[in-house]
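User: Teach me something about this protein's shape.
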Amino acid sequence: MRIDLHTHSTASDGTDTPAELVRNAAAGLDVVALTDHDSTRGHAEAIAALPGLDRDLTLVTGAELSCRIDGVGLHLLAYLFDPDEPELLRERELVRDDRVPRARAMVRKLQEMGVPITWEQVARIAGDASLGRPHIATALVDLGIVETVSDAFTPQWLGNGGRAYASKHELDPFDAIRLVKAAGGVTVFAHPQAVTRGAVVPESAIERLAAAGLDGIEIDHMDHDAPTRARLRGLAADLGLLGTGSSDYHGTRKFVELGACVTDPEVYGEITRRATGAFPVPGAGGRS
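Assistant: First, the predicted structure itself:
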């Protein structure tokens, strides 16, 4: 089985619609998780696309939650939770509502730095999506300021603590773990050592999160080199955490393909065993 547990659609900052993402995933995957930033808006469309596929594909519903600990931002992948659980829903809405003021602040900072970016340009790129830094980064690419979206996520530009960075409402990760568990979900720390994006939390913080009920850490990821992956595997083993692998696919916004990194089927099985808030949605293609 080929299992990719971290992807994004136009419901947040990807370029594939949820239906397109599912169709593209079916070409080479058996399981895909849709984990848009702080949003479950794409789930219904993705589920509706499953019966029309030419082969079976199982969809795992989820979200990538924006969190902050000790002044450092981190992302928490939440899988198979009840999307209507009131307390978690309220926190997700607070994060989403703060995205537009935050994006406007970053655009103003860029303008003060002499970048000829406009709010109208960023809003046009984002469309109806949950607005995020990748939309601003795409504008910087279009303007020729940086070569790729990833190049914008540095201290010089939009990286955590960077010159044009602005903060937003973010969850305390300990609260996020509690809320996701209360909603029947499973939590995995996304790309915990992606140092090219800015500051990362120390391993001592991961130990504290594990003690609070964190289920796993994302190990195989495009932003982790081989030594980092080896170190994280050891840490996961020491802490009794699941280790996942994922593409963090954003469509054409990033140069990474679906299934670039994958999760072991046994780990996926354990994630589904622990979840009680929702269940993977099997496809109805079955003609492969």
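Now, about its shape. Strands lie at 3-7, 31-34, 58-69, 72-79, 186-189, 216-220, 242-245. The chain has a mean pLDDT of 94. If you'd like, I can walk through any region in more detail.
User: That's plenty for now, thanks!
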